[in-house]
Amino acid sequence: MKTVEKEIGSILSGTISSITQRSIFNRLGGLATTPVQQLTANDRATIMQELESSVRLFARSNSSQLIASCAKALTPGPGSGPMGTASGGGAAATVPMTPKKFSIEQEKDIATARLEAWSEAVRIGLSKFASVKVATAVSELARNIVFYAGKGSVELRSVKDDRGILGLQIIAADQGPGIPQAKLDEIWAGTYKSQRGMGKGLVAVKKLVDDFQLDTRPGVGTTVTCVFKGER
Amino acid sequence: MEQELPIIQIRNCLLVSIQTELHDRLALDLQASLMERVRNVNARGVILDVSAVEVIDSYITRILNDIGKSVRFMGAECFIVGIRPAVAMTLIEMGVELDSVNTALNLDLALERLELLQ
Fold it and tell me: B3 lies in a domain?
């Protein structure tokens, strides 16, 4: 079984010097020598966070592509061994994911959820552009939870549409104050202005996604369910 | 963890490269220290490099617009440079405007435009 260090090292070699690689792996501590198959979702988020900032700083070119390949390499595939190399030609991977749920309580949880959503989107075969949209939508929804409800959760699952193509479903739920109807009307009309956000988060998400459902009850909580469809 | 974004001065411009998550506190600190520096060094322009930022949502957009507005109030111009193509397309789809700042493809072009303003 390949360790994180071996797997990531082979991707970064040639682009990031071995000295810099060493310091990246040192910062990861025990995670660097963990076999890729044994990583938990949290481990992956920690590693990707570290990689993201380092790769951006040190890579001579193409940092986002490198980060995407790292995310792919760290995500367990159907079997072990090299993944994604055989398919090629831009064919979408058709590996469904096991649902993942993240609790959202502080601002740093927003970044974690966003990163996980982004790497899952890449993994199930969404395009680079669509993956950025996914990450942005998760960012908006998680931010709403932190700002207005205090805590809640974001869940990611892969869903097949009627064409049999994998897409990503995002469920953002909280037991916060809910949104009263009057405020909701203002939000959709675009006239609502909140203190901290722009009051545009929900509108923005609705425009980004292919399917959008909002269930909100004052005093009970809010659940937003949305779907990004796969292409082709 | 306390952090502060470094502000670099290039001639009469201030440059900030955003390499980290912009949360509430950090954004407010940045806005305050930028305004202070604009006044102290008589800056003509402020350039925010976001080329390392992979995701810009409506909240970050608001922060950027706010910084742009406050810089403009001080009589300087604010440029956002290095917005990634996927980020730009996402902002358009969301219907979010970056209307209180100028944008330029990169640092070089922003500096060039600021010199033309002299």
Answer: no
The string of DSSP letters for B13-57 reads: EEEEE--S---HHHHHHHHHHHHHHHHHHT-SEEEEE-TT-----
Other CB atoms within 10 A of residue A184 CB: 15
Question: What is the span of the domain harbouring residue B47?
Answer: 8-116
Rg of chain A over all Cα atoms, to the nearest angstrom: 19
Whether residues A136 and B90 touch (CB distance < 8 A) is answered with: yes
DSSP H or E run through A205:
helix A201-208
Question: A6-26 pLDDT, tens per residue?
Answer: 888 888 887 777 777 888 888
Q: Is A118 on the interface with B (CB under 8 A)?
A: yes
Per the structure, the count of domains in chain B is: 1
Q: What is the CATH number of domain A100-228?
A: 3.30.565.10
Domain residue ranges of chain A, discontinuous segments joined by +:
4-74, 100-228
> Cβ-count burial of B2 within 10 angstroms (0-12 exposed, 13-18 middle, 19+ buried)?
exposed
| Residue (of A176, A182, A186) closest to A217 by Cα position | A176
For residue B28, which residues of chain A lie inside 8 Å, CB to CB? none
- Residue A161: pLDDT band (50, 70, 90) is confident
Q: What is the pLDDT of residues A170-182, one digit of tens each?
A: 999 999 999 888 8
Q: What angle do CA A11, A166, A50 make, to 5 degrees?
A: 30
Determine whether the interchain pair B94/A53 forms a contact, defined as Cβ–Cβ distance below 8 Å.
no
Rg of the Cα atoms in chain B: 13
In this prediction, residues A33-61 reach a mean pLDDT of 82
CB proximity list for A203: less than 8 A, separation 6 or greater: A187, A188, A190, B94, B95
- Would B17 be classed as within a structural domain? yes
Taking the C-alpha atoms of residue A129 and residue B68, their distance in angstroms, rounded to an integer, is 27
